[in-house]
Amino acid sequence: MGYSVGQVAGFAGVTVRTLHHYDEIGLLSPSGRSHAGHRRYDDADLDRLQRILFYRELGFPLDEVAVLLDDPESDPREHLRRQYALLTDRIARLQQMAKAVEHAMEAKKMGINLTPEERFEVFGDKDPEQYAQEAEQRWGGTDAYAESQRRVATYTKEDWRRIQDEVAEWGARYAALMDAGESADGEAAMDLAEEHRRHISTWYYDCSYEIHTGLGEMYVADERFKEYYDSMKPGLAEHLREAILANAVRKV
Fold first, then answer.
1. Backbone phi, psi, residue 181, to 5°
2. 39: Cβ–Cβ under 8 A, 6 or more apart, which residues?
3. pLDDT at 204
4. 3-state secondary structure 23-52
5. N or C: the chain end with fewer CB closer than 10 Å?
6. Which of helix, strand or coil describes residue 213?
7. Which residues, given as ranges, of the chain have pLDDT below 70?
8. What pLDDT does 190 receive?
9. Cα(15)–Cα(21) distance, rounded to whole angstroms?
């Protein structure tokens, strides 16, 4: 009888809605139906779903995934070899990024030259040095840390207000983009990802595309950052990670 859509969603860690969408666009149509007309997936369908999720994790848009999977010349074993090579390359690049910036400099707001009253006025109940000791231990020996430390030590209350306002305005526009159903690899999302990168370069340190990609991974992996970005719009952290990756690929 195969597997129901709910069972497959549980196996794969995706939503039923995602599976319905894959069916609607012809990316993954179940091989059978129950007597009541419900979708039923067989083992071959699960194999295809696994390959889809591999490519999605690597940042491939759905239309490209369909082309890769439906190539009449493709060999399932070649797919696995290709995915293994891509994953290995990605792991190597991420490890290199992590070694260079230790999950990135944006985790800290060190050396802020404000009085306690001014800090509360600008940041409210969010302590800008909450992770200061951790940041120094992780990144104290890097050039990016030194540059960020040098810059923020000179910022006035007005500077911090401007930074906060820019972030809030950017977050509102990104949330609106998601509400409009824009994909992470679309031009609008990539443009906002580029704006995000330039904001970091302007206020903290020179944020290369390589570093920015590492930041995107951190926004999802680190619960504190994920909570911060998802507070702007649920799901924004993962959407931004994909937009950052697509923007980096666009600029290559």
1. 80, 20
2. 4, 5, 19, 23, 30, 33
3. 83
4. HHCCCCCCCEECCCCCEEECHHHHHHHHHH
5. C
6. helix
7. 1, 72-77, 79-80, 83, 96-142, 144-145, 252
8. 96
9. 10
